[in-house]
Amino acid sequence: MLTDTETMVRTCTPTSPLIIFMDKSHDPLNDLQVMLGKMQMQDKLIVLQVHLHLDANKIKEQLKSSTRTGEWVCFSGCHVNQSIFFIIDEFLEYLDPSQAKSSFKIIFLTNILDLIPISLYNKSQKFKYIKELSLK
Fold first, then answer.
1. Sign (positive or negative) of CA dihedral 108, 106, 61, 40
2. 75 pairs with which residues across the strands?
3. Side by side, which strands form the sheet with 18-22?
4. Contact 21/127 with Cβ under 8 angstroms?
5. Hey, CA dihedral for 65, 69, 70, 71, is it positive or negative?
6. 73-128: per-residue pLDDT in tens?
7. Rounded Cα gap, residues 116 and 125, in angstroms
8. Global pTM?
9. Which of 67, 87, 71, 75 is CA-nearest to residue 15?
10. CB count, 10 Å around CB of 6?
């Protein structure tokens, strides 16, 4: 499991999504935004909140568009509806890497492991996000 942000970014590819396992009390979204800002890519983060009722076609269209533009598509709240993982798994199965910009990334923010299909889990990079607390 990866432990630093720089490694996380380098190892995530268009066909190898990133699963960020996060501590329930911390959300890494702000850190992702800061990191993109440092890379001059702050406008490349698309955050999609997962809901009970998902429109699979709308999600696939967003992913197709993002492969062309090199955006990072971040799914937050994945525990709400596990079908998001199956939608992404199917999308990646048919994605031609030569048709995707190298900066395209799929990121899942979750604190639940057992909902992720094994096929998606195996092709993903894993990053454990635990924000260090500083005591003064």
1. positive
2. 48, 108
3. 45-49, 72-76, 105-110, 18-22, 125-129
4. yes
5. negative
6. 988 887 778 888 899 999 999 999 898 998 898 888 877 777 788 888 888 877 66
7. 13
8. 0.79
9. 67
10. 9
